[in-house]
Amino acid sequence: ARTQFGISAVFINQFENEANYSIHYTITGREIYESCPHMNAFVMSSGTGGTIAGVGNYIQSKNAACRIVLVDPPGSVLYHHIHHGVAYAPQQQERALKRHRYDTLAEGIGLDRLTHNFLLGVDCIDVAIRVSDQEAVDMAHWLLRNEGLWVGSSSAMNVSGAVRVASSLSAGSTVVTVICDAGSRHVTRFWNGDFIREWGLKWPGDTSGECIPECLSEYYQHS
Question: What are the DSSP calls for 92-152, one per residue?
C-alpha cells in the first residue's frame, strides 16, 4: 500500500475479499475434515461468510453426506435467504424499521446483505436455524460452568446450534462447530449483567437454580 498508493494503510475488505473464503477452503476446511472425516454435520454462523462457505464447500467436496447448517441470530436476513430465497428479516418491516437497529446481542455475525464470501458457499448450505439471544446467553454461562470455556456471543450461538442439530441426529453422530470468539472481548455487553437485564433478558446468576439453555433442557428433564 505504501509503495503503490503512498499510504501506510490498506483496506482488507474481509467481507468481499475472496482470500477470506480461499484460506478457509484450503486450510480450515482441510484441517477439520482430516480430524473428522466422517462428520455428519458442520454447524456455523456467518459474519463475513468466509468460514461457513470455505469450510462447507471443502467438507462437501470430500463428504457429500455431511450437512452444512447455518446458525443465524435475530434480525439477520441470511436465514430467510436460505429457506425462501429472499434476503429479509421481520425487523425490516417498514412500519417497525428503526434508524439504528440493534436486533441481537451477537456481535460479528448476521447481516442485512449477502456478501461475496457468503455467496461463494451459499449452495452448500443445507438448512438454516435461528438461535435466540437468551439461548446464547444461557449457553455461554453453561459452557463456563460445565466446560470451563469463557466464550463470546458468536461461539455461544454456534454451540447452541450444534446441540440442536446433534439432538436431531442418531446416537453416535458427529457434529462440528467453531468456537471463534472469547468472552474477554464481550465484557461490556454479552457478559455484563446490567446490560443483559436492560435488554430484557434473564441473567443466569439471578436465579437460584441452574439456567439451562433451551436446546439442552429436554436432556435435563429426562435425566
Answer: G-TTT--SS----S--S---SS--HHHHTTGGG--EEEE--HHHHHHHHHHHHHHH---B-
**pLDDT per position as a tens digit, 103-157:** 788 888 988 889 999 999 999 999 999 999 999 999 999 999 999 999 999 999 9
Q: How far apart are CA 94 and CA 110, in angstroms?
A: 20
Nearest to 43 by CA among 21, 66, 65, 63: 66
Q: Which residues of the chain have pLDDT under 50?
A: 97, 99-101
Write down the number of H helices and E strands in the chain. Answer: 10, 4
**48 neighbors 14 (Cβ within 8 angstroms):** yes
Q: Which of 164, 72, 69, 134 is nearest to 80 (CA)?
A: 72
Those residues with Cβ within 8 angstroms of residue 213's Cβ, 6 or more apart along the chain or in another chain: 135, 138, 139, 142, 160, 163
How many C-beta neighbours within 10 Å does residue 185 have?
16
pLDDT at 87: 76
Which has the closest alpha carbon to 181: 169, 173, 189? 189
CA distances from 217 to 32, 33, 35, 41, 156 (A): 29, 30, 30, 22, 16
Query: Is the distance from CB of 45 to CB of 52 less than 8 angstroms?
Result: yes
Q: Is 1 helix (H, G, I), strand (E, B) or coil?
A: coil
pLDDT at 101: 46
pLDDT given for residue 100 in this prediction: 44
DSSP for residue 28: I
